[in-house]
Design goal:
about 130 residues, elongated, 2 strands, mainly alpha, 4 helices
């Protein structure tokens, strides 16, 4: 039994929102005829949320919710200006670097939280 509240429903909402935002950032206009899907932008955008989802069953409580809110906030702060306000073909590379930094933040923060909950590294749960 867990002592922390279970925020996995909110975590899955954050993951779904991040996936939709990643898809919206990857679908870019192609001249006047339609849209192209940049797979590199899509995969880079989904990476932090895949890592976050892999920790969502191990980590519970406020650490899961706070990390997800931080990831989604950073993602909104990077992708909305890069894609919707002044799109330049992602020439600055900021959209890739932000995803890499967000992935590292998720691994470190959720790894520490998982370690604190004693659910990994062979430690048995207390009864």
């Amino acid at each position: 039994m867990h002592q922390n509240p279970d925020f996995r429903l909110f975590a899955w909402f954050i993951i779904a929102s991040g996936a939709m935002l990643s898809f919206a950032a990857a679908a870019v206009p192609h001249f006047d005829t339609g849209y192209r899907l940049h797979l590199g932008v899509l995969f880079a955008g989904l990476l932090p949320y895949v890592v976050y989802a892999s920790f969502s069953d191990v980590v519970r409580g406020w650490a899961l919710l706070a990390t997800g809110a931080l990831l989604l906030g950073i993602d909104l702060g990077v992708k909305i200006p890069e894609r919707f306000l002044h799109y330049d073909g992602y020439a600055s590379g900021r959209i890739y670097f932000a995803s890499l930094i967000m992935t590292l933040v998720a691994v470190v923060a959720l790894g520490i939280a998982a370690r604190r909950e004693h659910r990994w590294w062979g430690e048995k749960e207390k009864k």
